[in-house]
Amino acid sequence: MKGGMIMTTTTEFQVTGMTCGHCELSVREEVQEIAGVETVEVSAKTGKLVVGGDSPVDEAAVIAAVEEAGYQAVKQATAADSEHSVHPVQGVTAEQGGYILQEVSAPATTGDQGQLSFTITAPDGRPVTEFETSHEKELHLIVVRSDGTHFRHVHPAIDGNGRWSLQWQWEAAGTYRVYADIVPAATGESLTLTRTVHVAGSFEPAEAKTGSTRDEVDGYDVVLEGNLTAGGASALSIHVLRDGQPVTDLEPYLGAYGHLVALRAGDLAYLHVHPEGDNPVEGQTSGPTVEFSVAAPSPGRYYLYFDFQIDAQVNTAAFVINTGASSGTAADGHSGH
């Protein structure tokens, strides 16, 4: 209370897919059902959704409610998000340190084949053509839908003019975040720049998950163990099994025996993740466990994506974990540096 009045905390989201007043009504009705929500302002024209309450709203619940209405929502990043984070976050803006991820060109709808391409410009406005190698690549391109699904980690090629490109086709409609993880040679500093891309088509929302620490991919069972705690580095272990037996043939991939990407649900901020242990030697294999140190910038829900390679084939296991909760027990199974 302040001056006899209740102070309302608001959180802003960007919603895609709304075209009419009925769309606004559907979103409003779903969001108003969330515990603690007092006010809902939504505009189909601007795509803006502002949710208010006596305390900060459950961002993941709002995003799930919007998806239930048939649309997609992404929390709008604010300066306060970074200020309140225990660790500085990356991957929430297209610009960092004067370097800019320019507009991403990609097929407009699902089913269309084409190229995904972009340039990164330096503080002087010129395209950057020289990058340092990080985790065996000059650029890591991460693409994921705003609900945490349809994750891809790929490595495009660069031409002499500084334009990165690769063949591309979207698997599903929706709003996607595209991240460029780079180290410009001029500075030697790691940057993660991002853009939002809207893909037309029939949108099918994914089932919202509150927690998932086990995934099955291409015959492998992958299990996440450990506690993710905001306020410092957390140790997480990932175990890979085949037919119930621990694997011992994990191959080096991107300079380690696995690669982990972590994103904060809501604004999809890109986390700082380090693999533990010695760097592998070419030809060595390991398993079944790969360990990581993850710095969660704030309390909340996080999406984790673990890339691992066996027999020259790269697979990705996906998890959902909440800070402050043990991830040693599987929940809602489905189916990084």
Structure write-up:
This protein has 337 residues and is mainly beta. The chain folds into three domains: 9-76, Alpha-Beta Plaits (2-Layer Sandwich); 95-199, Immunoglobulin-like (Sandwich), CATH 2.60.40; 214-322, Immunoglobulins (Immunoglobulin-like, Sandwich), CATH 2.60.40.10. The protein is built from three helices and 22 strands. The chain has helices at 21-32, 59-68, 79-83; strands spanning 9-16, 39-42, 48-53, 72-75, 95-96, 99-101, 113-121, 139-145, 152-154, 157-158, 163-169, 174-182, 191-199, 214-217, 220-225, 233-242, 245-246, 259-264, 272-275, 289-295, 301-310, 313-322. The strands form five sheets. Strands 14, 15, 16, 17, 19 and 20 form a six-stranded antiparallel beta sheet that branches. A five-stranded antiparallel beta sheet has the order 5-6-7-11-10, with no helix packed on it. Strand 10 and strand 11 (163-169) form a beta hairpin. It starts with 8 loop residues before the first strand and ends in a 15-residue tail after the last strand. It comes from Paenarthrobacter aurescens. GO terms for molecular function: metal ion binding. Keywords: Plasmid. Residues 9-74 form the HMA domain.
Quick synopsis:
One of its GO terms (molecular function) is metal ion binding. This protein is mostly beta strands.
- Oligomer state equals single chain
Secondary-structure element pattern, one letter each = EHEEHEHEEEEEEEEEEEEEEEEEE
Counting DSSP H or I runs of 4 or more residues, the number of helices is 3
In round numbers, the mean pLDDT is 87
CATH-defined fold name of the largest domain = Immunoglobulin-like
CATH class of the largest domain: Mainly Beta
Characterize the largest beta sheet: strand count, sense, and whether it forms a barrel: 6 strands, antiparallel
Keywords: Plasmid
Protein name: Secreted protein
Domain HMA: 9-74
Pfam families: HMA
